[in-house]
Amino acid sequence: MSATAPGFDLRPNPIKRGYTAFGDSYAAGIGTGNTSTWGCRQGRFSYPDLIASTVQDVDFQNLACSGATVQNLFSGGAYSQVDAWTNPTVAEIATISIGGNDIGFYNILTACVLWVGGYWAGDCDTEVAKANEILASPDLSTNITSALKEIIDTNGNDAFKLYMTGYVTFFNEETPLCESSSFRLYNPHYDTTHKEKGQPWLTRALRTQLNDVVVTLNTMLSHITESVNAYYSNTQRVVFVNPNPAYAGHRWCEDGVYEPNNTRLDTWLFLSGTPDNNLPENQLGTSESYNQTRSEQLAGPSFPLPDPNKCRGTLKQSIIGSDWYGKLLNF
User: Fold this and answer.
1) Could you give the CA distance from residue 94 to residue 238 in angstroms, rounded to a whole number?
2) Buried b (16+ CB within 10 A) or exposed e, 308-324
3) What is this structure's pTM?
4) For residues 280 and 72, what is the distance between their CA atoms, to the nearest angstrom?
5) Of 220, 210, 243, 247, which Cα lies nearest the Cα of 109?
6) Share above pLDDT 70 across residues of the chain, in percent, rounded to a whole number
7) Alpha-carbon distance 128 to 132, whole Å?
8) pLDDT grade for 8, boundaries at 50, 70 and 90
9) Residue 189 forms beta bridges with which residues?
10) DSSP 8-state code for residue 306
11) Average pLDDT over all residues of the chain
């Protein structure tokens, strides 16, 4: 995405000496370009790597890891990203994406969209209710607030800024064509007859329901930034970055698009088992990138592709835990 994409202002680069990235698979960028086979599954075109590519000779640490929850940020915790932060005082900025795994969003995608395991996928309304219950509780907000403070205090510089991203809503909710679209994992297709009963169809109601969960999470994250800034005497130590304005026209189910459409370059999201639409400077073509990514997935020790007939029993987690986006790309 260019620095001048709609919804983003062109500003002077604040990175002079160092930049650090924290977070989950949104930050790790699993599936973007070619993805590493080691446990954190960082993609070649992750947003931290794109940001770091705008400067030279700085201390860049990409600590983002697919599967991370807020507990993996805290010092002393399992797979602590803060503990892995070397030279923390050097960084002028850090970025973070966190919260998606904490609310169990993969369970929602499994039950409501991908239908992994068929009728064993779970109940969509139940999984959405669980996520909303977590979002309504003060626990997640309190933990993320504490994690942000720990990152700021570990850096120790008054001018240090932490940019926390929100999450992207997946669907255009208003368009009619997707009423006959299914993203069922092993048979995504368009069918106006809906002859395959039971599987979820991307109705307006379902798209709205799923987008609302993301919006609620983003609202909580935005409020957290205000709370943390108030804690530091109302100075802007944390900046909330909402990516959604830039995604207008680039989601699934855009007007006139028959989903699934894996060749539409203007869709900035992609389904499991489909290639990333590579940036022009990528030396690998689309098919080459797809083949390489598939071979990396098969070879990767942490996300093996399971037997679809025994999916629920054979799937193994990443070195951290259950990452909804990682699993989405690797089933």
Assistant:
1) 10
2) eeebeeebeebebbebb
3) 0.82
4) 35
5) 210
6) 79
7) 6
8) low
9) 182
10) P
11) 83
Strand segments (E) across the chain: 18-23, 59-62, 93-97, 161-165, 181-182, 189-190, 238-241
Query: What is the residue type of 286?
Result: T
Task: Output the DSSP codes for 160-202.
Answer: -EEEEE-----B-SS-SGGGGEE--TT--EE-TT--S-SS---
Q: Is the pLDDT of residue 1 over 90?
A: no
What SS3 class is residue 87? coil
The tokens of 1 are what? 């995405």
What does the chain come to in residues? 331
Give residue-wise pLDDT tens across range 266-315: 999 877 666 665 544 444 444 444 454 444 444 333 333 333 344 334 33
pLDDT tens digits for 224-279? 999 999 999 999 999 999 999 999 999 999 999 999 998 888 999 877 666 665 54
Burial of 254 (0-12, 13-18, 19+ CB in 10 A): buried
The tokens for 213 are 């969960």
- Contacts of 218-221 with C-beta under 8 Å, sequence gap 24+, read 218/166, 218/167, 218/242, 218/244, 220/99, 220/135, 220/140, 220/141, 221/99, 221/144, 221/164, 221/166
DSSP structure class, residue 304: P
97 bridge partner residues:
23
Close Cβ partners of 145 (under 8 Å, ≥ 6 residues apart): 224, 227, 228
How many Å apart are CA 168 and CA 217, to the nearest integer?
10
User: If you count DSSP H runs as helices and E runs as strands, how many of each does the chain have, helices first?
Assistant: 9, 7
- Select from 228, 72, 82 the least CA-distant residue to 164: 228
Lowest mean pLDDT among 69-73, 250-254, 326-330: 326-330
> Backbone phi, then psi, for 186, in 5-degree steps?
-95, 0
